[in-house]
Amino acid sequence: MPAPLFEAVPNFSEGRDQTRISSITEALGAVPGVRVLGLHSDPDHNRSVLTFAGGEDAVLSGAVGLARACARELDLVSQSGEHPRMGVLDVLPFVPLEGATMDDAVRLARRAGEALGLLGFPVFLYGSAATAPHRRALPDVRRGGYEGVASRLRDPLWKPDHGPETLDPHLGAVAVGARPFLVAFNAFLDTDDVEVARAVARRVRESGGGLPAVRALGFGVGGKAQVSMNLTDFERTPIPAALEAVRSAASSLGASVESTELAGLAPLEAILQTARYYLGLRELEAHHVLETRLYDPSGTRSSYTC
Amino acid sequence: MPAPLFEAVPNFSEGRDQTRISSITEALGAVPGVRVLGLHSDPDHNRSVLTFAGGEDAVLSGAVGLARACARELDLVSQSGEHPRMGVLDVLPFVPLEGATMDDAVRLARRAGEALGLLGFPVFLYGSAATAPHRRALPDVRRGGYEGVASRLRDPLWKPDHGPETLDPHLGAVAVGARPFLVAFNAFLDTDDVEVARAVARRVRESGGGLPAVRALGFGVGGKAQVSMNLTDFERTPIPAALEAVRSAASSLGASVESTELAGLAPLEAILQTARYYLGLRELEAHHVLETRLYDPSGTRSSYTC
Fold first, then answer.
1. Predicted confidence band at A301 (pLDDT cuts at 50, 70, 90)?
2. Is the pLDDT of residue B92 over 70?
3. If contacts are CB pairs under 8 Å, which of residues 92-111 in chain A contact chain B?
4. Residue B294 touches chain A, beta carbons under 8 Å
5. pTM of the predicted model as reported, rounded to 2 decimal places
6. CB B48 within 8 A of CB B42
7. Beta strands in chain B (DSSP E)
8. CB-based burial of residue B18 (10 Å sphere; 0-12 exposed, 13-18 middle, 19+ buried)?
9. Nearest CA of chain B to the CA of A65: how many Å?
10. Minimum-distance CB partner of A259 among B29, B282, B293
11. ipTM associated with this complex
12. d(CA A53, CA A58)
């Protein structure tokens, strides 16, 4: 069985200067055991989002290497852009993948928080790694950006979890957290009436009294009504549960689901969960999938008989 | 995307002598890129079945190493046992896994057939790799074991595909083929009446006019009626289709499916297929599963941005 795997999704405050972006990305990619999965830069926001993954120690080393590169390459004083930010490395969430639990991701987030604190970053732990309930929601941690964080520093409720208790205006602060994988799942209805999709979305989403950990909106896409969902915790509301709720709501409005799509990647566990749900399987784990027995992220071939 | 992967399931004619079995298994495991997944030895049959996997070239090298070890360690003249056999390495099927097609597996089987022929084995290609329709079915190729093969050698219809046209009684011949992954899938009914399970099995299996590439039997397992299925080609009859047929047949007999299980491993494609079927996904391929992007069977870490 492969070692527990994690994803990390650092957001850093440079989206225009390709040289600096490359330097930061290369510092991450140079860390053994790190797999860089994607980079998205937004010049208007002057912000980039990197996605990388690997085992716990590799991801931690990658995070530290990335943070050092951001401290070296970027200066918050000279940054400006549409997206409010509180630091050169602004947000760093960790996500459990196959073989890892949320507790594992929280541990990793806290190790990273301590390491970044030792590098001189004031660190606020958020999400599942938060050290108090009022710090769980990222918007609350980041409110007001650098100026907001600076104004709250004297408040005992907003003392950094790690690192200095003063802000360096060139570096800023960083929010480090743990959260589940976000699954983007869309359902296309057999109607072009966007209002139907909007009504379905209002019914199924958590904010409308629907399913927990589900955000949903209705759109028109290519002439078809589409219910676009973010499943922010597929252990609480699995993909099948979201789909069945959409089917049910659509049916009551005289419509049905014609097809669906996953926008982006899905974790293996979400796919296994789907198969377990519909087949009524007593169990289905990663190690039951033959191809998982052929891979070892450290690259070591192992041979065994059973 | 990882390189195409294959499984191979050699059956060799030794099930008692642990020293010989180990020597043969170790010769296989020593080949770089080969992952040995299992070994089952049967002393009554005096036969063993190894399961291994890897990329095409590694699996080919593994097969050649295994064949040489069998020729060195075993002697058909001194073998006896309940299971009819035609050679020291008796049967060698190749199975396409993630990223490989049946055509790929046929190519691999034919490369292996040629290589084993050069080693001095008379080779009969069977299954999807057969060079004529009458050779497709393994029971027809092996009928009568060594003696049966020897008696058919003069018949142009039964000339070996590779290797010598005379049999060495110490070595025998080998059947080399390509077939789909066999999925073992069981459905537990909400009744203890085994006759219901038998009736359902008769209705859903191919030999009863049911679904193609499905074998099924009814059993009593732990006090519950169980429909036990072998899906011999899940591209023709996917797991969901088999389950829906069982649900339908059971329902007409006043029973329902309580739970299911996969006995043994399942290929990733069968799980993806199941999710596509029930979710109505426009597409779902291996590369959409995040964890597949973290693994490289050659052990080479790759880093890229998108």
1. very low
2. yes
3. 97-98
4. yes
5. 0.80
6. yes
7. 5-8, 11-12, 35-42, 47-55, 89-96, 123-127, 174-178, 183-189, 214-221, 224-231, 257-262
8. exposed
9. 15
10. B282
11. 0.80
12. 8
